[in-house]
Amino acid sequence: MWQKSKPYLLLLPAIGTIVLLFFGGLFDGLLKSLGYFPAIGETGFELTAYTELFRSSAFWESLSLTVRVAALSSLISAVMGAAIAVSLFMLNESAKSRNTQLWHRMFQLPLTIPHLVGGYIIVLLFMQSGFMSKIFANFGWIGEIQEFPVLVNDPFGWGIILTYAWKEAPFVSLMIYPVLSRIHRSWRDVSRVYGAGNWSFIREIVLPAILPAWTIAAFIVFVFTFSAFEVPFLLGVTYPSMLPVYSYQLYTSGTLADRPEALAVNIVLAALTILLGLVVYYFSKRWNVMKGWD
Amino acid sequence: MSDLRIINLEKQYSQTPKKKNPAFSLKPVDLTINEGEFFSLLGPSGCGKTTLLKLVAGLVQPDAGEIWIGDANITAVPPEARRFAMVFQQSLLFPHMTVEDNVGFGLKMQKIGKKQRLAQARDMLVHVGLDGFGSRFPDQLSGGQQQRVALARALVSNPRVLLMDEPFSALDPGLREEMRDLLSRIHKEFRFTVLFVTHDREEAFHLSDRIGVMSEGRLLQVGKAKDIYEQPESKKVARFLGLKNIIEGNVANGRFASMDQAIEFPVGESIKSGASYMVLRPEMLKAAHRHDLQSPDSLYLRGTIQQLRFNHGFYTATVQVEGHQLESHFSNQEAEGMAVGQEILLVVELDAIHLTSE
């Protein structure tokens, strides 16, 4: 009996902490979003926060910005990540040299840099008085640095998208690379003998191989950017702001009455994330993407 | 005619600093394989036969020499444009494609429409005995079936040359024989040119029109199975073909004598003087009766039976003749009454003795 339950008991402190902090926090948020807030004397349950939220145009604008930024950053980082991984793979196949290692390390570099620092790098590079605009002005491609497009703290969210694309592309390639290394070295020989050039090999063999890992990596990036806070806070504009920032603005607005609405935003975020997870799971099952690989 | 001609093809691998032994090199190979011929490269592992195959496929670039098919020089043509096919040691099927798609892969690369491609793939699957397996995935097939699919994939695109790199070595013996028969039957039916690499003598003898024996990066001898078996051009070839009873000696004044002078007999005028090896095939050694008249065209050897083993269908006797142990095959009838320790007189016709060099 002791032997059987020992591992569970040993795990209990860790699991307990996670349950308390994560699910406890989520549950507390859910209660407060439903108007249960004993600190201000509210002990009833109501959906006012949600109806208010769904009626406000600020919420819908914020949601559309969030979806746009998350979709574009995951799309760009997925394409870039796959390109990096495939290039590294082909490089590795054609020549085993020290250079390959160097390239590997270089592409992994963004992984080691915190998001906040990444955000600052994008600010320094792309703001109107940043490096890029100065370089463009020095080369005479633009007359004044003010002519450089507004890419940071812009209403479209390009600054945030650039940061995430740069930061998450290595993550996507890191997810794909181990799958690529499962591709038999001799498959390249086989495909060449049967008439496949480099591009046909990538289309017929490499892409189908990486598709499952690729979908999952892109989804993780999407969900992460969908609910991330610091980069949108640093690189976004005050209005419209991304949902996590919008929630923060409501929460810290100074009045406790806005808090249920702020927490309702978080619950909506969590619900959408779970929903997206289910959709991806359903499609990956349905496409049978893993067929034959195991 | 589109014969495959290999002209002085050479490859030297660079020395890696980690390995102390010298880097492998393929010495110049000169070889013509006729259209429709089944040609085997036979040799021990590491002798360069796979390197030669990859050179022909274009997967490895030669340092010197040329490859011609018919009157076209294809040395610089990339593998994807050679219209060859290759079957490897492992089936190397693509796991995410169905059997049909795997078989039709080469056709797809040739931009043949899906309908025609699948029809041809299905037809070829019938030929390799896998009718109805088209919609399965490779992981649902046994090793033998996978290799049949690999064979179908190779044949369906009607290749100019079919290259095979020890395709049956990963299969168990029963299956290997079955695949050998299948390949032999299919080759008779389609008559495509095959360059087959193996270290299995039996396989090469069973399948090939001609065989090339390789060792240490050199092509030692090319010929029909019977010719290279009966007349190996060197001791190395004889050894690799599993020939027993190879005895070192000298030819002088029209006679061969073993180093210890125990075995001696006259040789033809065409045999050059100098160091030589006699090769006595076990099946050519017979038991002679004492009262038989001794013929001048035969060599008689007196010895003692040291060992008598039953092999499937016949007996193998090890006979000690002076300082030499000779192996001899006897039928059940001949072996009747033989016993270990018994004296025996062996006889072999002089014509059946083969002399070869180092």
UniProtKB/TrEMBL annotation, chain A:
PROSITE patterns, from UniProt?
Answer: ABC_TM1
Q: How does it sit in the membrane?
A: Multi-pass membrane protein
**A Pfam family the protein falls into:** BPD_transp_1
**Coiled-coil boundaries:** none
> Phosphoprotein as a keyword?
no
- Which keywords describe this protein according to UniProt? Membrane, Transmembrane, Transmembrane helix, Transport
SUPFAM superfamilies xrefs: MetI-like (SSF161098)
Per the record, the major location class is membrane
Q: Which residues cross the membrane?
A: 7-27, 69-91, 112-136, 156-180, 201-225, 263-284
Domain (ABC transmembrane type-1) ranges: 63-280
Check the record and name the Gene3D superfamilies matching this protein. Answer: MetI-like
Q: Where in the cell is it found?
A: Cell membrane; Membrane
Q: Which PANTHER family match?
A: GLUCOSE IMPORT SYSTEM PERMEASE PROTEIN GLCT (PTHR43759:SF1), TREHALOSE TRANSPORT SYSTEM PERMEASE PROTEIN SUGA (PTHR43759)
Per the record, the similarity remark reads: Belongs to the binding-protein-dependent transport system permease family.
Q: Give the protein name, as stated in the record.
A: ABC transporter permease subunit
- Species of origin reads Planococcus wigleyi
TrEMBL record, chain B:
- PROSITE patterns recorded for this chain? ABC_TRANSPORTER_1 (PS00211), ABC_TRANSPORTER_2 (PS50893)
Which residue numbers delimit the ABC transporter domain?
Answer: 4-241
Keyword Cell membrane belongs to the record: yes
CDD domains this protein is in? ABC_Carb_Solutes_like
Q: Which Gene3D superfamilies match?
A: P-loop containing nucleotide triphosphate hydrolases (3.40.50.300)
GO molecular function of the protein, one example? ATP binding
Question: A Pfam family in this protein?
Answer: ABC_tran
Q: What is this protein called?
A: ABC transporter ATP-binding protein
Organism, by scientific name, is: Planococcus wigleyi
